[in-house]
Design brief:
194 residues, four-stranded mixed β-sheet, alpha/beta, two-stranded parallel ribbon
Length: 194
């Protein structure tokens, strides 16, 4: 059930806070890195598995805690999931725990504005791997920072949604909340891909 762990996290303890949202609990895990609190993982609830359960299962030694910096990010995540237009900074997250390819994919994904979508193929081309759509799917499927890095904004080239860690219902709800229209049950009406 646990996703493959990122590069080894430094020996500092993993701390967390859990917040209730309209999409179920969200768990934000953090540690001190270079004397600053940095987010090491965000867990969103999935169909049948709450983020709180995944937290206990995958990070059993983590400790409940908060600090002003992480509280701000958790408040922003909650506001975003309640429909507010929030633009997240990457300064709070530990992208260095990801491979260089995944970092390029996540940065390209982060650049997609609210209300727009891109495709796995376009992200692959932008990430210097023009034939790497499947690699992009894998990089986004293991996105350690969902919501902050909005992987729900990436779809298939044919306009169908593809998968999402929180389930396709959540992906569609997030896209609709951002103003993305659908022409049927699972196909996005794209005004041009970002």
């Amino acid at each position: 059930m646990c996703v493959k762990r990122m590069k080894q996290i430094e020996p500092n303890p993993i701390l967390y806070c859990v917040r209730a949202t309209p999409f179920g609990p969200v768990a934000v895990l953090w540690s001190v890195h270079r004397r600053k609190p940095k987010i090491v993982r965000i867990l969103i609830s999935k169909p049948g598995i709450s983020a709180a359960h995944a937290l206990r299962e995958c990070f059993p030694d983590s400790v409940a805690s908060s600090c002003p910096e992480t509280d701000i990010l958790v408040d922003q995540i909650e506001a975003f999931l309640n429909g507010e237009d929030i633009r997240f900074s990457l300064d709070a997250v530990r992208l260095d725990l990801c491979s260089s390819f995944q970092q390029r994919v996540l940065r390209a994904n982060h650049a997609i504005p609210r209300g727009r979508v891109s495709t796995y193929n376009l992200i692959a081309k932008h990430s210097d791997n023009p034939n790497g759509a499947r690699a992009v799917v894998t990089a986004l499927a293991t996105n350690p920072f969902p919501i902050v890095i909005p992987c729900h904004r990436v779809i298939r080239s044919d306009g169908s949604m593809g998968g999402y860690g929180g389930g396709v219902k959540m992906k569609r709800a997030l896209l609709e909340m951002e103003g993305v229209a659908f022409c049927d049950e699972c196909r996005v009406v794209a005004r041009g891909f970002f």
